[in-house]
Structure to design on (431 residues):
């Protein structure tokens, strides 16, 4: 058969050949780049959530491997037996304190709402446990366990909720908005989601200017991590190599919006790739996994190696706050995560599996936590409300008392001449 004549264009066949050649060249130039996200989990839950519309109402249905067997706790590479027991104790106190707060609310003693971290105790307690006392924490509303680990008492938290005069903000602010920049190195939570991230990055920068690389830790939810300020803060920490440890608490819900309707990536840890920082996935119900990832991230931070994003996967086991019955959550999802309860599983690990606690020792420990909590609850309930005439006072400090002292050393550079300390001075007073 005679060969069909090639159609010619104004540029002729030479041009086609050139295009084909350049396409082939481009193809040979394209390389698949691969990135890694470490995944510490022993189980990778797989289920799907679908939104079903029923006229004007919307509900969610869940499908997938909901009957999968419960994973074991992963042995920690770093925690000793004693440290595991200590974290377990914090987790117990965290849970029991929240149960007490729920009762105080129902008795009408709480001013405002109550927020719970039920199911998230391992994440709060084991992450904060990885910080050294002179490092910094910026908790969110569900991280009451982190506050306990940093040295706030259950009474501090309960009195804060009840707006008592003896609470950290002397009854002038409700729920979570308190910290301690003097001794516990805790930045007060900021309700505008994501805003704590640049603040904590700034704390790390401040320490760097004083000659010390420290770890600073904060949290963001699956919902909150979509805010612009999350990007800005983490990107700033990344380019400045600041020791920020960001725990992305993926508890599957932001208010009543399921995670599946908030982002398209499979795992939020993938976002670390775009920041150029390590991303790690942990089972947020396993304190050993949370601690190990947080400890490694803190070590990187202390070595001046920059931030780490840790995605902790778990489930918010109550509504957004006490007013929210979470009826939009499919019951099967609650049942699935109930079997993965962080405290019950860690108890089983310590008592039955490792035999690090006998049954009697475990019961004694629980009774001690109960007694401590009961004493603190009684003290909080009995303590007075603030006097009306004190209402005009400051929520964090009184006028004129504000004094900022360098925590680590006198900054060597980057301080305006007017703010530099003079011979014999120990503090800069902000007027
Ligand atoms: C910038 C900003 N937008 C909206 C809100 C209102 N808001 C408070 S909590 C919340 C849901 C947060 O969900 P998530 O980040 O997943 O945290 P979770 O409550 O699940 O711990 C929203 C939208 C806010 N506080 N800040
Ligand atoms: Mg959430």
């Amino acid at each position: 058969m005679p060969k069909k004549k090639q159609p010619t264009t104004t540029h002729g066949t030479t041009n086609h050949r050139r295009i084909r050649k350049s396409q082939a060249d481009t193809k040979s130039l394209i390389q698949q780049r691969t990135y890694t996200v470490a995944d510490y989990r022993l189980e990778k839950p797989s289920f799907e959530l679908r939104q079903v519309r029923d006229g004007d109402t919307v509900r969610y249905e869940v499908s997938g491997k909901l009957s999968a067997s419960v994973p074991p706790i992963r042995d920690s590479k770093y925690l000793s037996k004693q440290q595991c027991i200590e974290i377990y104790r914090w987790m117990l106190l965290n849970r029991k304190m929240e149960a007490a707060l729920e009762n105080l609310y129902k008795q009408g003693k709480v001013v405002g709402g109550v927020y719970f971290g039920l199911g998230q105790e391992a994440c709060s307690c084991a992450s904060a446990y990885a910080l050294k006392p002179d490092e910094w924490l910026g908790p969110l509303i569900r991280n009451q366990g982190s506050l306990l680990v940093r040295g706030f008492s259950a009474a501090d938290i309960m009195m804060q909720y009840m707006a008592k005069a003896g609470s950290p903000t002397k009854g002038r602010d409700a729920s979570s908005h308190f910290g301690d920049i003097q001794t516990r190195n805790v930045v007060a939570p900021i309700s505008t989601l994501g805003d704590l991230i640049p603040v904590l990055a700034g704390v790390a920068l401040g320490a760097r200017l004083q000659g010390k690389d420290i770890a600073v830790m904060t949290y963001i939810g699956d919902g909150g991590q979509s805010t612009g300020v999350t990007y800005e803060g983490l990107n700033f920490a990344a380019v400045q190599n600041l020791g920020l440890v960001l725990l992305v608490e993926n508890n599957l819900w932001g208010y009543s919006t399921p995670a599946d309707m908030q982002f398209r990536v499979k795992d939020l840890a993938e976002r670390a790739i775009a920041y150029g920082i390590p991303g790690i996935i942990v089972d947020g119900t396993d304190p050993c996994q949370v601690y190990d990832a947080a400890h490694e991230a803190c070590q990187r931070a202390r070595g001046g190696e920059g931030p780490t994003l840790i995605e902790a996967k778990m489930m918010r086991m109550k509504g957004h706050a006490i007013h929210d019955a979470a009826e939009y959550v499919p019951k099967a999802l609650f049942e699935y995560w109930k079997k993965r309860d962080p405290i019950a599983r860690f108890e089983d690990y310590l008592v039955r599996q490792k035999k690090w606690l006998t049954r009697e020792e475990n019961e004694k420990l629980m009774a001690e936590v109960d007694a401590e909590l009961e004493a603190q609850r009684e003290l909080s309930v009995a303590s007075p409300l603030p006097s009306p005439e004190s209402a005009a006072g400051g929520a964090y400090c009184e006028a004129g008392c504000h004094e900022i002292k360098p925590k680590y050393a006198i900054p060597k550079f980057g301080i305006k001449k007017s703010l530099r300390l003079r011979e014999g001075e120990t503090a800069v007073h902000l007027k």
In short: The longest strand covers residues 47-54. The pocket of magnesium ion (ligand 2) is lined by residues 221-223, 251, 253-254, 316 (CB under 6 Å). Residues 209 and 415 are 9 Å apart (CA to CA).
